[in-house]
Write a structure and sequence with these properties.
By secondary structure, this protein is of the alpha/beta class. It is 37% helix and 22% strand.
Length: 302
Amino acid sequence: MATLTRTQLAELNVFSTICRKKSFRLAAAELGVSTSALSHTIRSLEERIGVKLLNRTNRAVVPTPAGMALAGQLEQGFDYIKAAVSELQQYRDEPIGHLRLNIPRDALDLLIAPVMESFAKRYPKIALEVAVNNHQVDIIHEGFDAGIRYGEIVPKDMIAVPLTGKLRWVLAAAPEYLAREGCPASPDELKTHSCINMRLGNDAIYQWELGDGENHCRLAAPGQYIFSETSMIIKAALAGLGLAYCLEMQIEEHLRSGELQCVMPNWAHISDPFMMYYPSRHQLQPGLRPLIALIKAQHLRS
């Protein structure tokens, strides 16, 4: 069996990273080198094996057929290597390594932020990187170890672990707004109200889901205010600008204080939990299992 030199392994890693990021610039940023250094490495690799691997234009980097075949094999090979290294963590006294997550903003506020201090104190050797994206991301190709999303949109080919119980979505408004505009009693009556809408990561306006079972309905809520962050929707509702549709857990304090009131409680909607998900062929990255346990414990207490 031929032995690969350090230089050859480095060249293959560079090539695999460029294919995954689909960009010399992004690959260079991840690897911490210049784009010119990557270009030199790819030229050396192609000259050594005698096969052209990449077609590069001003706008894109596209593997040749030979490059695509090599990239697929390398991805599996590097996955096996990462899994083997990950398994060594069980022999350490405490987890050590780098954990990269991709999550929506709501998960940052509700799940990650409340456990950050505890996680940092218990696992000081884990470097945690969290990227916030409200749109769906291919965590494998973007180089993330795991992601968090609402259960119904987790990719089917992933291992998914529930972090919370079922989620309850409610309508709420400030007493000032309800005194001025009245309190709707059914979905039909929402047509005459100001509804504060959410623009999703795919640029669509989220349609409100009300009720469950036979009473379930989905509607495009009318309103002049649209935000891409739940925090802004809640602030607008607190200011008396209209009705907000959000997770009950996001506004519990405002409901207790009376700053917001639940509207049409019989039309609350129950959805799947938040899920932590990761590729099925990967071993759990160091720190992921204890992070999941901390989040679940936090929600058992709340």
